[in-house]
Design goal:
single chain, alpha/beta, Rossmann fold, about 45% helix, binds nicotinamide-adenine-dinucleotide
């Protein structure tokens, strides 16, 4: 492996590490030499991930919407491993009910908006605040926030979720600006559609076709694609990259409007 990509000797926290993109990131980071605290609301699944790796991983329960549990999670991870070099802010408010309730602003229930902002923005702020002193002490700290392609363009629905992810992109720039001279980089990865187990379960096939038709690459994302981007940004290979959002969406967000119609017109 290219040496700068190595995470040998580093300690990471991955929130939402018990499933999907977070789990793939845990697997990859450990494969590159890191030790990882798998932080998740589903402690049983976090334990199932961590036990695969013996001393290289621990599972820590945490609810992103509860401040005390976040503080306890960071303290436990640092206490256990003795340091912290990487924070992957990846957990998000989840659940089909919440997705269904995430309408356009004209129909938005205040509680839905509050749930997304409490979990994604307030929660991520608290994890970051609690981790920062340890990342500064590391001398070579890196934060990677999982945001979303939905933060880059308007849509008919998902106004609360997408607004939290746009706010997290700004948090990324703010932290990068304030902590660069203190030895901490902060970047984000914006996935497009990623067929995790949760997403794949109920994803409407008509919507999948719609996304694929608008994607320059001929596939949608896999959790491992996003893990690669996260592990790169967390590594020394990205030492001069900070405050950026790396879009990993197969190109769905970069083309002219009517891309699928143009493909038809030009005969693809
Ligand atoms: N899958 C996609 O298509 C996609 C696209 C763009 C962005 N993302 C982002 O990627 C990140 C990971 O999503 P995923 O698709 O892998 O999700 P996932 O549902 O597969 O995994 C999310 C993990 O977070 C945990 N979690 C849920 N609520 C939590 C809470 N309150 N506190 C702590 N942990 C909690 C879950 O138990 C689960 O293990 C999220 O930030 C999501 O917004 C996903």
């Amino acid at each position: 492996m290219y040496k700068a990509l190595s995470l040998e000797g580093k300690v990471a926290i991955v929130t939402g590490g018990a499933g999907g993109i977070g789990q793939a990131t845990v697997d990859l980071m450990i494969g590159r030499g890191a030790r990882v605290a798998v932080a998740d609301i589903a402690l049983d699944r976090a334990q199932a991930v961590a036990t695969k790796y013996g001393d290289a991983a621990i599972a820590v329960g945490m609810d992103l919407s509860h401040e005390a549990s976040i503080k306890a999670m960071v303290a436990r991870a640092v206490d256990h491993f003795g340091r912290l070099d990487i924070l992957h802010n990846n957990a998000t408010a989840v659940g089909q009910q919440l997705v269904d309730a995430d309408n356009g602003i004209g129909e938005m229930a205040t509680e839905t908006w509050d749930t997304f902002f409490t979990t994604n923005c307030r929660g991520t702020m608290i994890v970051t605040r609690e981790a920062l002193p340890h990342l500064v002490r590391s001398g070579d700290g890196a934060i990677v926030n999982t945001v979303s392609g939905m933060a880059l363009q308007g849509n008919i629905r998902f106004h609360a979720y997408s607004a939290t992810k746009a706010a997290m992109m700004q948090m990324t720039r703010a932290v990068a600006t304030a902590y660069g001279r203190k030895g901490v980089r902060c970047n984000a990865v914006a996935p497009g559609l990623v067929l995790t187990e949760t997403v794949a379960k109920d994803f409407p096939s008509a919507m999948l076709k719609l996304v694929l038709d608008e994607t320059p690459r001929d596939r949608v994302g896999a959790p491992e694609d996003i893990a690669e981007a996260v592990a790169f940004l967390a590594s020394d290979a990205a030492r001069n990259i900070t405050g950026q959002t790396l879009v990993a969406d197969g190109g769905v967000s970069i083309h002219i409007p009517g891309f699928s119609a143009y493909r038809e017109f030009f005969g693809d």
